[in-house]
């Protein structure tokens, strides 16, 4: 009967019952009347009629077996029966539940991360109305000439769109980066805090209410520097201010400006970025105050071709406006902004490139998260790996159930012979497996609870602080329930169908052997082969990622990695300008060099493996560019003795030295890659390179060629790069410098001394956290490392589960074949022969499994190719190692049952017969 | 849970009920049971109570349609009528029955 009817039956249950009773009574009354008519007394007639009718209650019951109440009752009975079965076999139950829990727990953990990153909506008003005009999956600050789809936006561009767009009921902007600043709260000593600049309508556009006090409003957008207010995040207010309402009005001092606390945002709200937790928010108007020397608010759009793109823009669609409609309006507006946004003096080529810019609107209910796509891709790989683990666990449980089904052959036979239908028994079996799966899911949830935090922390990679809300919400619970149900059916159905296909005559006859065991064994072996294949897949995947990591770590950067430390110093924020900056860098370099324990110190703009990069258009004497790519090169602005300090030999000429100042002719050092690309065999020495950026240009004479060094990435070929003295840069002296400091001993011991030395020049200098080069390199390889670790973990679990499965099936096979082995031994087979017989079977299973696994691995390697480095698609070393590990583990798992088989006592085995 | 084609006894009762309804037209349970008994006599003893689960089930299957109507003695009675599906089912059951009895009689008459 269909579900629908069953349910309507429940609703009509009372009426159904009354109808049935009336019908039966009608029948009885007529029959009684009949008998009375034929001469019986009323009592006799009633009795006879009743006798002829049979048992009305029983009949009523039978007529109602289709009712849902009965269905539920059967379910409860099945559950009780299943629970009793489990209690009777605690080992079986624990093994099965744990295998499933590991599989389900791993999957749920990964899914809860996916949920946090891709699915969960921001805790704001109607998150589905939110659209991002920038790319919420990027982060940072981008300065220069952009092209193509815009990741970020400048403030002037925002103002234009905000003032003219009609598609939005509100449009706000927010800094696309969260930095750590030094603040003084209520006159206390300096402490670190993470503030974020937001436009004054940020809270109203997102629909976030104040918890206490007020949030920003139009009043907070008077003029740059005129609105020194902050709104605290709820968490910061609780942690730093003890949740005290008197926090309102507290003065917070940042870089010479005192701000006053005006409110606390609603609990649960931590901004538009799902992985960032700002401590408080400042009005956008305060930007020039917190970044002295850099006014990013006032920008003459038509004069400056170099845009400071540092904002994310979020809008709320006006009622009735679709994303497409808003996109069309923004397209027109932005085209206009861009056309008027670049000086007419630009070269036609540059202008064409500049005009090729576009804002792409996207649904933004899930908020911003830098590197979301890459992160999601990693999660997909991990979900695949944990899926393999779950599948292997399922197969294990299926095999356990199959073995148990054989043991229950007689029980099934008895139940069938006394009238149970096969469907009823299948249902009983499925109830048991679903109960197992459900218990596995429950324990799995516990694992996921801890696992998701662990995975989130591991996957944080090179992010400084990475908090994802991985809490197990309804969606995650639904996912867990879903996969539990699915796994329950997946591993339960075959044993249920097999276990109830019983030949009554055989099963009821005495004796253990008369069961359909060979069919069961073949199925079990097939499943084990599949497990072998899957675990090979898992360990190959882990192996490929491990080798990738090792290859990355073994990359030669071109200079010694040890005993080198880096620290970024910002001169502009502390108020230095023009020649003062030049003096500052000279002073700092000299002071650092003279520190005891320091063997050399220099600086560059971009540092080494610090995530900053510069590039410009170049014209090289005697070189004719063929494509657009030939027109540009990366560059760095460096201090004196950069190459000798870092440890890179010069191949030709000299390096940049102290003599190269603003007063002397401009010179340049190029790297090998630059020489190869632009000079291709010609002698570069003494040739000229013109650097262009918009209207600016500078001409340098080549004075040296340095050996290639890796400064920002380990994977690709070294890019052509030219190095200019920091004092001869096209844009004037460096505003910022990353010092590279060589130490005699452990650089970590020098951190404090170096920090003090730098601050002794000026307390207001803003320092980036000090790091050693090896730390920076570790951060570069953090994600591949974590992927390798997690996949290795999954691979090991998969291998362990598969080995358990193999062991179980072989043990079972040996028990089943005790008689056969006894006969063989009685006929003269030695122990060695018995062992090799069992191991041969194991070998065949491994072999087939390996073939399946290798075929699968080829597909896998192609899927994760973009994450591999320095490996052929199907790396023979990895495959061979994986095969060897699999074979070893499988043989160990097979050896124990084989030894047990060899210890079979022929006499006892035959007597058993 | 499937049809009961392998369950001879139940199938037989179904067949008898369907056939009776085909002969009688719409009829209540009592009438059906009387009809079967009057024709088969003592040779075929049907426990009357088991008729109703069968009717209930056949109604669920859509072979017959149940409807409350006033009966001859001024009481309400549930009348059952054959549906198109029921007619088809009757033909099928009858064919199966014929095959079975043929087979049995062939075996029995094999000397």
Structure explained in plain terms:
- The complex is a heterodimer of chains A (913) and B (111).
- Chain A has 913 residues and is of the alpha+beta class.
- In chain A, 51% of the residues lie in helices and 15% in strands.
- In chain A, the strands form six sheets. In chain A, strands 5, 6, 7, 8, 9, 10, 11 and 12 form an eight-stranded mixed β-sheet that branches. In chain A, strands 19-20-25-22-24-23 form a six-stranded mixed beta barrel. In chain A, strands 17, 18, 26, 27 and 28 form a five-stranded antiparallel β-sheet that branches.
- In chain A, strand 23 and strand 24 (696-706) form a beta hairpin.
- In chain A, helix 5 (68-88) crosses helix 15 (422-459), helix 6 (90-119) crosses helix 15 and helix 19 runs antiparallel to helix 22.
- Helices cover 59% and strands 14% of the residues of chain B.
- In chain B, a hairpin with a 5-residue loop joins strand 2 (64-70) and strand 3 (76-82).
- A three-stranded antiparallel β-sheet of chain B has the order 1-3-2.
- Residues 1-8 of chain B have low confidence and may be disordered.
- Chain B has a single domain (8-106), classed as Winged helix-like DNA-binding domain superfamily/Winged helix DNA-binding domain (Arc Repressor Mutant, subunit A, Orthogonal Bundle), CATH 1.10.10.10.
- Classes of the chains: A alpha+beta (913), B alpha+beta (111).
- The A-B interface holds A 1, 5, 19-20, 22-24, 26-27, 29-31, 52-56, 58-59, 62-63, 66, 421, 423 and B 1-2, 28-30, 33, 47-50, 52-53, 56-57, 60, 68, 71, 73, 75-78.
Low-confidence stretches of chain B: 1-8
Number of domains of chain B: 1
Computed structural class of chain B? alpha+beta
In DSSP terms, counting alpha (H) and pi (I) runs of 4 or more, how many helices of chain A? 28
Major sheet summary line of chain B: 3 strands, antiparallel
Number of strands of chain B: 3
**Helical coverage of chain B, percent range:** 55-70%
Give Rg of chain A in angstroms: 38 Å
Within CATH, the superfamily of chain B carries the name Winged helix-like DNA-binding domain superfamily/Winged helix DNA-binding domain
Average pLDDT of chain B, rounded to a whole number, is: 80
Largest interface: A-B, 24 and 22 residues
Shape of chain A: globular
> What portion of residues of chain A belong to β-strands?
15-25%
What is the first-to-last residue Cα distance of chain B? Answer: 41 Å
Radius of gyration of chain B: 15 Å
Question: How many helices of chain B does DSSP assign?
Answer: 4
Report the helical percentage of chain A: 40-55%
Number of strands of chain A: 28
Rough outline of chain B: globular
CATH topology of chain B: Arc Repressor Mutant, subunit A
Kindly, what is the distance between the CA atoms of the first and last residues of chain A, rounded to a whole number of angstroms?
48 Å
